[in-house]
Amino acid sequence: MNLQRNINIQNNNLYPPPNVSTINNHFPLKIATFNVNGLNDSTKQQLLLNTIELQNIQICGVSETNLNEHSSKIIYKKNDNYRAFFTSNQSNVRGSGTGIVMTKDLAKYVQ
Hints:
By secondary structure, this protein is α+β, with helices and mostly antiparallel strands. It has one domain (24-107). Helices cover 30% and strands 23% of the residues. The longest helix has 13 residues, at 42-54. The protein is globular and about 40 Å long.
């Protein structure tokens, strides 16, 4: 029996919906988190991207970014493979700020 059919049949309903089950062909889905202790340095930003790409991570949570409001809006903006969503460190408290970096094929489903 087809693996895709096994995934989609549950109580005579399609689960997950067909558009979700065809998002990508990566099995298993790789999710990771990193405490970066600051992401203001361009070298550190590139190192994070290199690690995500090398490990084929589709969704990556990032903590302690310490990004200001401007940086949180533009970081990874021009990347062809990944989309990023970050909060800013508006309170200037060291160790604050979070984000999520994900492949563009998954990010198109984020609203």
